[in-house]
Amino acid sequence: MNRISVSSSNIRSIGYDPDSETLEIEFHSGGIYQYFGVPSNVYDALMSASSHGGFFAANVKDNYRWQKIL
Fold first, then answer.
1. In the predicted structure, residue 1 carries a pLDDT above the cut 90
2. Is the Cβ–Cβ distance between 4 and 16 less than 8 Å?
3. 38-64 burial, b for 16+ CB within 10 Å, e for fewer?
4. Phi, psi of 61 (to 5 degrees)
5. In sequence order, what are the residues at sequence separation of 6 or more whose Cβ sits closer than 8 angstroms to the Cβ of residue 3?
6. Taking a C-beta distance cutoff of 8 angstroms, is the pair 24, 11 a contact?
7. DSSP string of 2-34?
8. Is the pLDDT score of 57 beyond 90?
């Protein structure tokens, strides 16, 4: 999945596949995680948030099934 680099102290890049509603987050710590069933409006809000990390923690982290891929 292609990811877009973001300016964040915690998140390095963010990718999204609208067909499968899969959100992919790469952290500066090196981990890459996929979150499943994430609606496109949540991805859009994440990408436009003033704090990507803050939005992720409040709206994604504990709200969707996930798996670590790296």
1. no
2. no
3. beeebbeebeebeebbebbeeebeeeb
4. -45, -55
5. 13, 14, 15, 24, 26
6. no
7. -EEE---SSEEEEEEETTTTEEEEEETTS-EEE
8. yes
Selection from 34, 42, 39 nearest residue 59 by Cα: 42
- For range 37-42, the mean pLDDT: 98
Q: Which residue has the higher pLDDT, 12 or 70?
A: 12
Cβ atoms of residues 42 and 64 within 8 Å: no
| Residue-wise pLDDT tens digits, 6-19 | 999 999 999 999 99
Strands 32-36 and 65-68 turn out to be antiparallel
